[in-house]
């Protein structure tokens, strides 16, 4: 019995930390002493397409099932995005930041999202794996940058789902004709941002996770049905809302000025989060080269159009000063005397947020699966269940983390922190596109490499300058300096650095201008986030660095060296086989010559 328990403990430990550095405390101590060398190795080591598509997938024991088409991806895209922000944050931002001009905030954030969609699409077609942006950045910017992005990707999914789950409670309360706090446990001694405990949000998350665990295709079918019903409700809101529109509500269109519009757009970028979850489904897509561009770009165009219509409708129905910040659309119908319609709106919002949560759970688990394949997280999370073809362990882990955050944390805190993580990752993906197109090891000359680095630094630096200047001043002098520098950096890439890699199937148009503009607009929106959110972001980044130095660095280093060792061994075996084959051919020739000589001797 004792031996069996020891064996189970060892096997359980091996599933979490099977690398050589963690075999004993002595081995860990030796590994930790090599941290500077290993950190340098990981910072300058880049993966490649073959490694991500073949080697990493093989570490999940079983393959994910290819069951999705472009039609599935469009519905997943709409289901993933539509409902998360429009029903959650529109009222808050219209009332406190932008007024009726919140529609322009949606245009700005939608443009930023669409630019990022183009970048994601090229990567997803070229590297169709579950790792999404983590895999893309590992190939182009190296292990260290990819890990920092990975931590923020996981944070994005946890916070995004937690925010939607808490809003799910708010609309459920509206449906029951109750106040949201009636369903929450209020602890008065705690900070108000964390003291409104939400058990309903936890129950919703667990129920959706159970559905996601069993089948990706079944999740797709459920998503389609729920999204179709949701779209009917949205059409109802727009038609009835515009019939009861009051143009006087637009008399003060932008009461907080352009600063308020951009500040709101930075937060409302949350409304477009979710499309990157669709890119993680590339590994389960039948024809990635055709299906992913149609699914991602098509769904984003549809969503942006719907968001603008809904935002306009809300502010035409009700004066922005009286818009409710918890359930804006339901209360707006009550304000025009259509009290019964708020139940239809609440039900539609619940359906929309349910599909958002579903796709979030599916996408988050795929991200964690691929991150764990690299051993930056324990490889136990990378295991794919044999029967369901889904990452069971990763799904459970992400839902538990999300439920804990949703139980405690207020929506306002979640939304601002979420936008920082998301904009930061999208900016890195755009940089990754520039590196992918203009740099290739062994092809790009040292001179062109330096030119590319200088131009990218100029693009990022000038974008930071525009963002910072806009946050501090309404003048034009800063723009006169930073905008030409951005043009100089982007033009420098276009004129001075030759493009070394063309996409095989589908690529971002107008390179380098479109990725460069994506970098600029994402950084620009980052300048509108509040200081407290940056402090929380800094704390989270610090925690990531500590984990990486103590665990992730050594685990991924050992795993990569094991792969290199296998490749070297395979090359050695291939070489030896070729040598044996050549020797065998020489022996055959020698034997043939000897046979001929014996035959001639016999004749003589």
State the main characteristics:
globular, disordered N terminus, 604 residues, 73% helix, 2 strands, mainly alpha, two-stranded antiparallel ribbon
Architecture overview:
This protein is an all-alpha fold and 604 residues long. The protein has helices spanning 2-16, 25-33, 35-43, 49-55, 70-81, 90-98, 102-126, 132-140, 143-175, 199-214, 216-243, 257-268, 275-279, 288-317, 328-335, 341-373, 392-408, 411-438, 446-472, 477-496, 513-526, 531-603, and strands at residues 185-186, 196-197. It is globular, with a radius of gyration of 27 Å.
Q: Strand fraction band?
A: under 5%
The biggest beta sheet, please? 2 strands, antiparallel
Find the count of extended strands (DSSP E, 2+ residues): 2
* Strand and helix order: HHHHHHHHHEEHHHHHHHHHHHHH
Low-confidence stretches: 1-13
Rounded mean pLDDT score: 80
List the helices and strands and how they pair.
Blueprint: H1 2-16, H2 25-33, H3 35-43, H4 49-55, H5 70-81, H6 90-98, H7 102-126, H8 132-140, H9 143-175, E1 185-186, E2 196-197, H10 199-214, H11 216-243, H12 257-268, H13 275-279, H14 288-317, H15 328-335, H16 341-373, H17 392-408, H18 411-438, H19 446-472, H20 477-496, H21 513-526, H22 531-603
Antiparallel strand pairs: 1-2
